[in-house]
Amino acid sequence: MLQFADFNWIFQIIFLVFFMFIYLYGTRLQGYIWQRQAEAGLKQLEVLATQGKNIAAKAFKDLNVDEKELKSTIDDFMEFFIIEPVNIDPAGVLQRLEHVLDVRTTRYEEHVARVIPKATPEQQANAEAVLSGAMALHYVYRVVRHFFLLGKKTKSIYYTMQLQMQLPMIIQMAKAYFEATRAFADGKPIGDGMGPLAVAHFAKEIKAGDPEEIAQHTIAFSGEFEGRTLWFVRAKGYGSQVGKPGEGIKKVVERNKGKIARIITVDAGLKLEGEDTGQVIEGVGAAIGDPGPEKFKMEDSGVRFEIPIDAIVIKESLEDALAPMKKSLVDAVPKVVERMKNAVRLRTTKGDTIIIAGIGNTIGIG
Q1: What are phi and psi of 269, to 5 degrees?
Q2: Overall average pLDDT of the 202-208 stretch
Q3: What Å distances lie between residue 165 and 14, 22, 34, 46, CA to CA?
Q4: Residue 348, C-beta contacts closer than 8 angstroms, at least 6 positions apart
Q5: Mean pLDDT across the chain, nearest whole number?
Q6: Residue 179 lies in a domain
Q7: Last residue of a domain, one of 170, 186, 202
Q8: Which among 159, 161, 339, 342 could disulfide-bond with 151, CB atoms 3.0 to 4.6 Å apart, if both were Cys?
Q9: 110 in a domain, yes or no?
Q10: Measured between alpha carbons, how far is residue 103 from residues 51, 73, 108, 113, 134 in Å?
Q11: 174 shares a domain with 206
Q12: Are both 22 and 160 inside the same structural domain?
């Protein structure tokens, strides 16, 4: 008959065996768990990338594209890339970057126009945006797959560990790109269009004049408000465009020979977790999410003619910015318009000329 002391020895042996197993194989076991979690995330990204391509295919089919040409069009653009200019010698790097970005835009436009020549400019712009969204999803999937396979190939748990830790944020970002792709295909306004939408409301309220295209895909129009002249600058609507607001502001400043009292930029801005979507805040500087050239033109105009630059930002998450515009954002438009009015009243005087720039994507916004 076993005594209590015998059970004590058995428990100690079991504990020692368990301890040795964890000591010798615990890291491998943890690596296996991380690998399975990363693999599940990779499959989720693959589904999103495939669905993104399907959305792009359907969007082109709806515009009567030949199916044979459709497949080659989408496949050709899935791995389209740009090479940034050398920045070791920084002189002129922004001009060179702008040139590369312009060439990329031209390539997009030429390719889409060749595939759907009978489509309207707005439909072509939306088709370009759908392709861009599908490309982003495809790129995210390829990069994650690369590190996942590299971790398996090298049997390094550090690749797998880092990938597994970052996957929740990567998947969140991929879902935002997926929602943007769907919104572009449907022609719906997205959260990033808050700047142009608010500017359009303000311009309509004061019955501004007819717009003119002052820069590539960028319009400007003027109106009177409480004894001041307001120039509104934003991308063209209804198609998916972000335009060249920096170039547009530069030309308006030059047209007025530098006699601009203030530049007010209005754009969507990323909120922190715990903050409310649609909250409107103010600051100084050029509010624009730009690789550099357009922001530089805004700042350069301000420096050359000593024009203060104000920023009005509408807080939203990445998902809010890329997904169809939420009601909470639409409800914030009157608040943004009121902020613009107050900025004009408090920081300028009668007889002044002010530029108000609505920064963002104008899909679905007239």
Answers
A1: -135, 145
A2: 92
A3: 33, 22, 9, 18
A4: 228, 261, 262, 354
A5: 86
A6: yes
A7: 186
A8: 159
A9: yes
A10: 28, 18, 9, 15, 20
A11: no
A12: yes
- Total domains, the chain: 2
Query: Comparing 28-37, 128-137, 275-284, 309-318, which segment has the lowest mean pLDDT?
Result: 28-37
**Residue corresponding to tokens 């047209």:** 255
CB-side exposure of 78: number of CA atoms within 13 Å? 18
C-alpha 358/C-alpha 295 separation (Å) is 13
89: tokens are 């010698």
Residue 353 bridge partners (DSSP): 229
Please report, as a single letter, which amino acid is at residue 309.
Answer: I
**Does the pTM of the predicted model rise above 0.90?**
no
**CA distance readout (Å), 217 to 34, 118, 213:** 47, 20, 7
CATH of the domain at 319: 3.40.50.1470
| CA 271 vs CA 80, 279, 315, 332: distances in Å | 31, 9, 5, 15
Tell whether 166 and 237 lie within a shared domain: no
Residue percentage of the chain with pLDDT more than 70: 90
**Structural domain includes residue 28:** yes
- Per-residue pLDDT band at 279 (split at 50, 70, 90): very high
The three-state (H, E, C) secondary structure of the chain, written as one string: CCCHHHHHHHHHHHHHHHHHHHHHHHHHHHHHHHHHHHHHHHHHHHHHHHHHHHHHHHHHHCCCCCHHHHHHHHHHHHCCCCCCCCCCCCCCHHHHHHHHHHHHHHHHHHHHHHHCCCCCHHHHHHHHHHHHHHHHHHHHHHHHHHHHHHHHHHCCHHHHHHHHHHHHHHHHHHHHHHHHHHHHHHCCCEHHHHHHHHHHHHHHHCCCCCCEEEECCEEEEEEEECCEEEEEEEECCECCCCCCHHHHHHHHHHHCCCCCCEEEEEEEEECCCCCCCCCEEEEECCCCCCCCHHHHHHHHHHHHCCCCEEEEEEEECHHHHHCECCHHHHCCHHHHHHHHHHHHHHHCCCCCEEEEEECCCCECCC
Pair of tokens at residue 175: 């879902």
> Is residue 264 within 8 Å of residue 336, measured between CB atoms?
no
Residue 65 sits in which domain range?
12-186
Residue partners of 293: CB distance under 8 A and separation at least 6? 94, 95, 97, 98, 101, 246
Q: Are residues 16 and 64 in the same domain?
A: yes
